[in-house]
Amino acid sequence: MDTTNETPDIRSVEADLIVPPMISGQPERGKRVRQTIPEYQETHVYHTLYLPSNWSSDRQYPLLVEFTGNGPYHDKYHDISSGRVEDSKLGFGISAGHNFIWLCLPYLNNLGTTNVTQWWGNKPDYYVEPTLDYCKNAVPWVCQKYNGNPNSVIITGFSRGAIACNYIGLNDDEISKLWAAFIPYSHYDGVLETWSYSACDRASALTRLNRLKNRPQFICHEATNNQQIGLNATKCYLDSTGIQAPLTFRETGFRNHNDAWVLRSCPTRKTLRHWLKSILTTSLTELPGFENHQWV
Fold it and tell me: Is the pLDDT score of 287 beyond 90?
């Protein structure tokens, strides 16, 4: 029996958040801008940066670093993904636009000259090093320039981006040190070994996972009957690794493979925000205007 059809569609719940569009110009509170780090100014590579509505130059803010899904993608439920940084949603849905700097990073082609919407690098080798290099430079640059707290950097991602939380975020010892916590939504590095990029086997994934140490992950997935990729498949995989870490598992409560679920009021979003508040070293209550935002 296909119980997925009985699970609510995200369109049955009205969105209570609207993601601001990417615009040109200098970063400012409540705006989402197209930007490139200095080392890549002569390329076509870009990311998006959003400063929270209560951003102030004299305070430090936690930083949400997001990676998007593959694109172009569409499915039978009319869910779509472009794969472009400007169409990402998780960071805004998690934060509601307050208290967190939100950075959506690109995946780069093999030459490191432009963004790509399918995996990272170019097929058939899918060279990941340019993407790693951009991330390693962008995160500390944003923290230094816009008052991000380097001890409160959270990596999150949808689909391809969920895999990227570990595949990119734990790819080597240098990059793995950037993160305080992880929020992968829909897929997980190591669960499937049939992806088209290199080192997707479980032995390689376990090498990456061992760099997690004791850091927390909030692992979420849409409701699905696919026994190979759902939340239970991820739980079984992680149980088989013997990894010891504070892992939280939740289904979104929707059937959709769509990061727009987090733009809607639902129990899992509330649980995610409570979880995030509990693990941050930054005290959100000390940020200007915190009391004006019903975030959790």
Answer: no
Average pLDDT of the chain, as a whole number: 94
Q: Over pLDDT 70: what percentage of the chain?
A: 95
Task: Dump strand ranges (E) for the chain.
Answer: 22-23, 32-35, 47-50, 61-67, 73-74, 80-81, 101-104, 107-108, 115-116, 148-158, 181-185, 217-221, 247-251
**Rounded CA gap, 280 and 162, in Å?**
20
Query: 104 — phi, psi (to 5°)?
Result: -105, 115
Beta strands in 47-147 (DSSP E): 47-50, 61-67, 73-74, 80-81, 101-104, 107-108, 115-116
Q: Is 291 left (phi over 0), alpha (psi -120 to 50) or beta?
A: alpha
CATH number for the domain running over 3-292: 3.40.50.1820
Q: What is the DSSP secondary-structure string of 157-179?
A: EETHHHHHHHHTTTSSHHHHTT-
pLDDT at 110: 97
Three-class SS state of 119: coil
CB 120 within 8 A of CB 197: yes
What are the counts of helices (DSSP H) followed by strands (DSSP E) for the chain? 7, 13
Mean pLDDT of 95-110: 98
CA distance 55 to 28: 8
> Is residue 65 within 8 Å of residue 153, measured between CB atoms?
yes
Query: Which whole-number Å values give the CA distances from 150 to 42, 63, 156, 180, 227, in the listed order?
Result: 27, 8, 16, 9, 38
pLDDT the model gives residue 1? 41
Q: Residues 131, 45, 65, 122: is their CA dihedral positive or negative?
A: negative
Q: What is the pLDDT of residue 229?
A: 87
Cβ neighbors of 167 (< 8 A, separation 6 or more) are 128, 189, 199, 200, 205, 208
